[in-house]
Every structure is written in structure tokens, then in C-alpha cells.
Amino acid sequence: MSEVTDHLVTPIAPEGWTCPAPLRDRPRVVMGHGGGGALSAELVQQIFAPAYGGEALAQMGDAAAVTLGGARLAFSTDSYVVRPLFFPGGSIGDLAVNGTVNDLAMRGARAAYLSCGFILEEGVELDVVSRVAEALGAAARTAGVEVATGDTKVVESGHGDGIYLNTAGIGLVPTGVDLRPERVVPGDVVIVSGAVGVHGVAIMSVREGLEFGVEIESDCAALGSLVEAMLAVTPDLHVLRDPTRGGLAAALNEIAQASGTGVVLQERAVPVPAAVANACAILGLDPLYVANEGKLVAFVPREHADAVLAAMRAHPLGREAAVIGEAVDTHPGMVVARTGLGGTRVVDLPIGEQLPRIC
């Protein structure tokens, strides 16, 4: 039997999971508006999208696919306000590069150029600025992308958190590649590239001084080469997403809603490291909602799923890739999980966020 139907990966412990949520009827911005969940979606759909308009924005993906001078480009921007600036496995500089490179990769594009804006708080040590800049430059070289332009602003002391970063990026989309949720059809196999929840728990452990018996390092990485390996098997992948804010649950819900299909998730098949599962159980968190910064989720036509999974596992960033579910024609727009106890639960889009400021 193929691994598409086996689902043989390490089980996870669900006890103690909760999903705290802010009220949705507040007249002012709350932290949850930046969490990648339902509040973020409402902010975009009710305020930003009507104000901006345009077909490119209407794609609402990790990056927009646009045509310019006959070339098909992917274009993305993101801001980074993580605290602390340095954490096990990376820094805000690594995040700024890898996050934007990954957004472009989710449209199948190899990142070519980045812009970088530094917003510095008055009083931050120049040595800290230098360390962040060096980390950013090293991450760009590793990802094979050039920082082509940038900007610097300084805000008064007390009006920032040391350093905020903004990066935007562009890259070419190869001919024949069309990655978007509208292409998902019932029967598509859902594959995740590795263990989930690692980045969010790593940030939480450092920020709050928590110890879980073993150091948890962020999974921050640029995924462009992994995507290229997958596309080399077939350009007919249907959609890719990097499950950052809102975690795997948010990414799957966004795809289900945009495609009009349902998603059935095999909860035991989701790879969650024991340290992450234990930390989430202690903190009352659900690993499905915890952010990642070096993982992707793919919806792949069933006939290509085994070959794509093998290619992912042959790549250093996809060794723990696993089949975790499928798209179905029932309960359209909804994600449900089959639990290890034999039951079924709805995996909703989170309202706000479990962990603040993780990217």
C-alpha cells in the first residue's frame, strides 16, 4: 500500500488544547487583528480590500501573481516585529528574508530581488543593528536572493521594540506553474513538509523563560529549493502554503474556503515533535494553530502524490514530509480532523492568535 493511504507517523497528544480568542466586536484594533486568523481576514476584507481594489489583490495568496512586460512575476511583502530579536535557530533578520522568499515560493517562483526596510527605535545598540543586518545578509546569500534596495527610519524611544523589519520580494513564475487554491479538487492529497509548531514554541520558550527539558529551535528556513524539487516531479501541483501565523489550521481553512472543498485531516498523521506536543499540553495550546517558519503544506493530485512525497523526503528540508489528509466534496469550506480516539472535530479558522509576535 502506498504512503498516500498509510498515514503512518508519530501520534500526538491532544489533552489540554485550547484556543483563546479575543472579542470580535471591538471598535479598535486588538492584537488578534495581526494573528492570521478570522480577525485578520475581516480586517483585510472589510477595510483594506475595498479601499485598494484590483484583481491582483483579490488573489489573497501568500504572494500575488502579476504579468509585467510579458513576464509572469510573483510579488510579496511582509513585516516582522518578532520579540526577542534573536532566538534558538534564527533571528528577525533570518525571518525577514526567509518569510518573503517562502511567500514567493508558494507561487512557484524563485526569489530574485528583495527590498528591506529597517525601522529602528532610538537608543537601540548599533551592535544589535549590525548583528541583525549580518544575519539578514547571510540568509539572503543562502537563499540565493539579492537585497537590491532598502530604507531606514528611526522612531522615538518607547515607540518601537528595538528593530522592526519590512521586506518585499519579486521572482519569476515558471511557465506551466499555476499554484492557487481554486485549483484544488476533491481527491487531492494533503502533504506537510515536516514537523509543525516548532517556531512558535521556540519563540515562546525564549520570551517567557520557559524550559521544556530540551531546547526547541525555530524551523526558520528558505523553502525555494524544496519547491523546485517538488515542481521537478510535476508542475501540476495545485496549491502550496507556508503555515505561518495561525499555523496549519489557518492555512488549511483558507484553502478550503477559497476552493469550496472540504478537508479531512488525519490528526495522528500530523508530525508534531514530542517536545512541542508536551509544551503545548502544558500551555493549553493546539499545535495545529502554532506558527511555523520553515514548513509548507501542499495539495497534490493523487496520481502524483507518491512521487512528490518521495522527492520531498529526499530533500534536506522535507525529510519528515507526511501525508496528513485529503480534499473532499463534503462539508465544503470546512476542515475536520479525525482524532486518535476515533471521533471527528471541526478545525476552525482561529479568531486571533495563540502566541503574540512570533514573526
Strand content: 15-25%
- As for the CATH topology of the largest domain, it is Phosphoribosyl-aminoimidazole Synthetase, Chain A, domain 2
Sheet with the most strands: spatial strand order? 9-11-8-12-10-13-14
- First and last CA, distance: 40 Å
Radius of gyration, rounded? 19 Å
- The CATH homologous superfamily name of the largest domain equals PurM-like C-terminal domain
* Coarse morphology: globular
| CATH architecture title of the largest domain | Alpha-Beta Complex
Q: How many distinct folded domains?
A: 2
CATH class annotation of the largest domain:
Alpha Beta
Number of strands: 14
Helix content: 25-40%
Spans where pLDDT lies below 50 across 5 or more residues: 5-23
Structural account:
The protein is α+β, with helices and mostly antiparallel strands and 359 residues long. It has two domains: 3-21 and 178-346, Phosphoribosyl-aminoimidazole Synthetase, Chain A, domain 2; 65-106 and 110-172, PurM-like, N-terminal domain (60s Ribosomal Protein L30, Chain: A). Helices cover 30% and strands 23% of the residues. It contains nine helices and 14 strands. The protein has helices spanning 3-6, 38-52, 92-105, 126-143, 198-207, 224-233, 247-259, 274-283, 302-313, and strands at residues 64-68, 71-80, 86-87, 90-91, 110-121, 146-155, 163-172, 189-192, 239-241, 262-266, 297-300, 322-328, 335-338, 344-346. The strands form three sheets. A seven-stranded mixed beta sheet has the order 9-11-8-12-10-13-14. Strand 1 and strand 2 form a beta hairpin. Helix 6 (224-233) packs across helix 9 (302-313). The longest helix is centred in the middle third of the chain and has 18 residues, at 126-143. The model is unreliable at 5-23 (pLDDT under 50).
